[in-house]
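Hi,

I'm pasting everything inline rather than attaching a file, because the server keeps stripping attachments. The sequence lines come first, and each chain or strand is labelled.
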Amino acid sequence: MNAPLTAPVPMPLLEIEDLHVNYGRIRAVDGLQMQVGSGTIVSLVGSNGAGKTTSLTALSGILPLSGGRIRFGGEDITHLAPELRVRRGIAHVPERRRLFPGMSVRENLVLGSYIRHDRHGIEQDIAVMVELFPILGDRFAQMAGTLSGGEQQMLAIARGLMSRPSLLVMDEPTMGLSPKMIDVILDTVQRINSQGTTVLLVEQNAIEAMRLSDHVYIMRLGRIVHQDTGARIDPELVKAFYMGEVL
Amino acid sequence: MSAILSTEAVTVRFGGLEALSAFDFKVKNEAIHGLIGPNGAGKTTVLNVLTGFVRPTTGRLLFAGGEIGGLGVNGIAAAGLARTFQNIRLFGSMTVLESILVGAHLHFHSSPIGLIFRSAAARRAEREMIESAYHVLDFVGLGSSFAGRIATTLSYGHQRRVEIARALMSKPKLLLLDEPLAGMNSHEKTEIADLVCAIRAEGVSVLLIEHDMQIMRSLCDHLTVLNYGKRLADGKPCEVLADPTVQAAYLGRERV
Amino acid sequence: MDYFGQLLANGLVLGAIYALTAVAYTLVYGVVRLVNFAFGELFMLGAFLTISLMTSEVQLFGTAVAMPALPFPVAALFAVALTALFGILIDYIAYRPLRKAPRLAPLISSIAVSVVLQSVAQTIWGSEQVHFPDFGLADLDPIVFFDSIYIRVMDVVVMAAAILAMVGLSLFIAYSKLGRAMRASAEDPMAATLLGIPVNRAIAAAFALGSGFAALAGLLYAQSYGFAHATMGFLPGLKALTAAVLGGIGSIPGAALGGVLLGLIEALGAGYIPDGSAYKDAISFAILILLLFMRPQGLLGRPELNSAGAGSLLDGVATVGKGGMQSLLGRLDAGFAWLAGSGARMKVAALAVAIVAGLIIPSDYWLRILTMVLIYGMLASGLNVIVGFAGLLDLGFVAFWAVGSYFTSILFVLVLKQAFGIDAQSVWWLFYVNLIIGGLLSALIAMILGTPTLRLRGDYLAIMTLGFGEIVRIVATNWIGLTRGPMGIPDVPAPFLFGLQVKSPMAFYFVALALTAVILFAISGLVRSYVGRAWVAIREDEHAAEAMGVPTARYKLYAYAVSGFVGGFVGVFYAHYQLFISPLNFSLFENIVILMLVVLGGLGTFIGPFIGALIWVVFLQLALDIPLVQSFPEIRFALLGVILMCLMLFRPQGLAATARVKLTMPGVGMERAS
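And the predicted assembly:
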């Protein structure tokens, strides 16, 4: 089947229009425009300081916008409180994991399901997470702060999934991980997606992001400078952006 | 050429985590030296070690011929290593002139009694430093009309210059710039890059941590790349950035 | 053994009460990193509410009101619940808007809440003790252990209630959804928000629980001692805070341990140390200071809770206030900016106005008031050095004032006059020497006190200086051989000037004016130089200041020394002006008033402390003509608290904020400035 390969995506789950975010006097995000199709993996790549993390933080409602609109599942969520966005189905796995280090692995997972009230379903999902990341099962009672970097990332993803999101937003899930662990994490991302969860991925590891994603946006100085399907994007172009070979 | 700053096998451990492993590098005298690496590579740790905020677990730090490993933050500043901060840290409610005079703190020695009664020596010291502050303001391209304005109300680009001026007021041997270009447009970036060149021309060595490869490529004499807390590459910018291992550190690599 | 056993039992009861209150501090601190000084007052509120609900008729605002006369347990339950709701309200009004403000702002706001609650309680329930009504459990015969240790049934109830509440709370925090959300919000508020946890609700829950615990402790305390009083919460509150810090603030088992330890130390200390009961309060605070010196994270605490940076009171303050408020402030700002900008002319003009005022004001009454304005203005200027310029919150400043006053009074009255029979007139110059020596003595003490606080963060510093201030007051009250204790030192001679005694209010006014000029001259010499720039740099960003080569620890000590010097200097004059001093002159409340004057007038300005003093001292007098104030004089202090709170919310920089001080030497090298 030959679906149209470029944006706009037929049924966008998330639409970001002309997003502006300022940090004091810095324009961190300067007119971001992007769409995430339902059921797809979309990556946002770009070198450090391009404004990727800021965009995601604004998407979750933590940072105030200075302009633009965010629509999720057809609803305008631009002014929604952060916790209501979680209830609408957005789970954000933040940069550097941000687990609760003094709480056990299990408690971290349970906290991920804070917005839910189905006690039985929560227990079931914890079992599902252990299936997805068997190592977490062995570490159940351990404090999250004592896990290795890779284990912490797994726990962060699992904690995000515990709210049963329709959109999983991940910020640099492979940062600081060993090459082997990077493969494990990215394989899991693909598996999560294949089970129906839409994924928005911010990833520095552009080569892998391109391989994984249905669509890739390249960001620079707060704007999208290039976008295409993962398969069609030219790795040399990405390299040029990263290594400062183009303007 | 001799090295103004060198680290010898510097290792930093936090708990079980090794943030920096046997890190060696040298900043040559009167060089513009760049330090780059992907997020989480350990750049911040290097910075914290160099500025005395974190003590190395093992290894030595040599600066201008002396060991600075145990001097602490203001001891290192006194030894002649000045810095700016990633997210500009100016003193709120102070004017530009007052802020940059704080940078010259090390060069004031008047006694409290002399200050209260405004002795001739105290006045002379103050006058000399204010003169030198105006000179530095001109040098960073702000000019004396900025002197009386509250520093934190200036535009971002101007605040960055004030911060650099403040660091220069201590008459440093090495200036450490932590992402001085972050959040700037390309025009502002070029201006700051020119300023960095001018600083080096004055005989001050510069260590630059920055993500903008395009600028780093043209500005630096030498690049050091960090990855996983180790030195990954070291050399001329064009060679280093063409190194496949460096590219892989940034972009990832295809799976085999 | 019997004696020991009895002390042990007393200590445990006291410890249980401290522990409950300590939990309140620790709970809120753990979640929002705020030392809520108002818990002492919620403690008091719990007691008053219980008493009111238990009686059939109670005097409120001086009139009798019918009450339900509930049995003790029911009344207690209601009191706890009401106080808990009240805690949520306080958080909502006084702290939530300051969540992102510099750390000192909510701290000062909490002191303000404290003042408001205390004076409102005094207005409602009166300033006399209110007796705790009798009830069944309290009338039972004591239980006798080992034939000789008597424990009241209610004491057992107190301990049981404390244990139950503590266990209940621990279970709640560990296993309930809200408890888990509270812990998550404490560990990482942003991560908690990302999981859909309403962090503000979790914080409100911590306030509710904390306030409930404080109320429970307060009502148990009141029934133990048989009365309630508007100021009853102050000392236990401070001790509970000590207990929380002792156990490790942020840790609930730590608070329990700290409370019990402190209760035992106090009971045993009072029983075994000679003169121990007089000094038992000082023992607690001495422990606090030692502890903060040696192990600031407490016995069970985590050091990282202690590493958060000190905040600037002025930094990051947006211009708030809307509409009319804004335009009003705008006009004010323009005025102050003009005043500050007019430099030397302005100084001469101010001095001229002050001199003319002294000459033409015919009323002795108003001259005395103006002299008080100058005294408070000088004190506030001294405190301003440490709080306003260096950005360190000092709640023990009043101690330096006391040291100066006592030093000169003891020397003139108890030593020279009484021991050697030397008349003040023959050594009249000694007064002027004493101004300096008293100042230096206080500066020395300030530096000794300051040394351990250098490593501490803003709020710990506040606690420690508070403890120090209390120790000085307790010593002044109890070391009767040195200070004559509560009797005070009468007949302090008025100062002489070459054989002429300063007697008339006008003469005193001019002496005060001269001293004010001296103080301002000295302070401005230091502030308008590299020293002042270093202080302000520390206040605004300590880490950046350190990185610029400022030895921050040393400059903080300098600020302490200067502040202490001014306190001692003014203290010497104060003693010779009042002609009588007693420990009552140097209460913590005075310290809060002085702090308020600085904040009201404008932190880090020269004129602010005097504007604050003028407004406050004149207001205190004028308000006495208002009928409402005549019947309830305490309401003035409630107003003070409300003003302080509003300032923190709308204008944390103080009224005269735009009269900012130039930090360069006047007349030096400014020719190039535009």
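Chain B touches chain A at residues 38-41, 155-156, 159, 179, 182-183, 185-186, 211-217, 228, 241, 247, 250-255 (CB under 8 Å).

If the labels don't parse on your end, tell me and I'll reformat.
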